[in-house]
Amino acid sequence: MIGFQEVTKQFGSTRALDQATMVFPKGKITGFLGPNGSGKSTSLKMIAGLNRPDSGSVLIDGHRPSVETKKDIAYLPEIDHLYPWMTIGEAADFTKSFYEDWDHNKYMELMDFLQLEPSMPIKKISKGMRAKAKLLLTFSRDAKIVLLDEPLSGIDILTREQIIQTIIRDYRAGEQSIIISTHEIQEIEGLIDEVIFMDRGRAVLQGEAEILRSERNKSLVELMKEVYHHGNF
Ligand SMILES: Nc1ncnc2c1ncn2[C@@H]1O[C@H](COP(=O)(O)OP(=O)(O)OP(=O)(O)O)[C@@H](O)[C@H]1O
Predict the structure, then answer these.
(1) Residue bearing the CA closest to ligand 1, atom 16
(2) What parts of the sequence cross the membrane (predicted)?
């Protein structure tokens, strides 16, 4: 379980997180939803150990983010972080050198499934292919925690479908925790067990997707519209 307890993070005059309290349950897929600037990327970076709270605490199975917790986390950032001068195969070798949980068989299978080739130069491939290459590197590890920051953003519909299938393909329910940040809930509604809605640096609604749907008799898309258009629920 990953828990945020009253976490605040300020960048200059911008409060990215404002006493955010939320729980990402273990072994589940959590949809981490919210408009631009609501604090999703800041939260994921905090779990990945790339930034620290100004106040409050973040605990991953009871431990503060550290070099040790990083070993169990596969993080797919929103930005295009692949080195353009590498081929996909070189980027894979580079990633592999950092992590003990690299699974070569999974890498080969996913490469085939995503219709990528190790010899493809990153600077020459399309945006959709780069998104798939990022996913390939993330899911070729057997990480206990997978953080996907906007994995579908700016990607065409067929590639989106492939990305969703990749997420479902090897997911180890109960063992692996996946957090997917997005503002496009439609694509992931069928995939997620849990949901957290962020607004202005706070988690404003969270819970099991199925329970929220039945309690409120609404789809998550409708619920999202209600949360963000009226600001109360
Ligand atoms: N390193 C930084 N320096 C300055 N401001 C930052 C930094 N990182 C985030 N912010 C600001 O903090 C706020 C929250 O940003 P964050 O990226 O966490 O939101 P988000 O929900 O992920 O949004 P998006 O969907 O646009 O990525 C924004 O106003 C953003 O501009």
Answers:
(1) 39
(2) none
Buried b (16+ CB within 10 A) or exposed e, 209-218: beebbeeeee
Q: Which two tokens stand for residue 8?
A: 């605040």
pLDDT for 133-143, tens place per residue?
Answer: 999 999 999 99
Low-confidence ranges of the chain (pLDDT < 50): 232-233
Are residues 136 and 107 in contact, defined by beta-carbon separation less than 8 angstroms?
yes
Flag whether 59 is in a domain. Answer: yes
Number of independent structural domains in the chain: 1
Question: Which residue's CA lies nearest to atom 28 of ligand 1?
Answer: 37
CB atoms within 10 A of CB 84: 12
Q: What is the per-residue pLDDT for 233?
A: 44
Residue 124 CA to ligand 1 centre (angstroms): 29
Distance 41 CA to ligand 1 centre (A): 7
ipTM of the predicted structure?
A: 0.95
What is each CA distance from 154 to 127, 150, 159, in whole angstroms?
Answer: 8, 9, 10
In a domain, 104, yes or no: yes
Domain that holds residue 205: 24-64+82-230
Q: Is residue 144 part of a domain?
A: yes
In whole angstroms, give the CA distance from residue 216 to residue 67: 41
Q: How far is the CA of 168 from the centre of ligand 1 (A)?
A: 28
Distance 39 CA to ligand 1 centre (A): 6
Nearest-atom index, ligand 1, CA of 42: 18
Residue 4 in domain: no
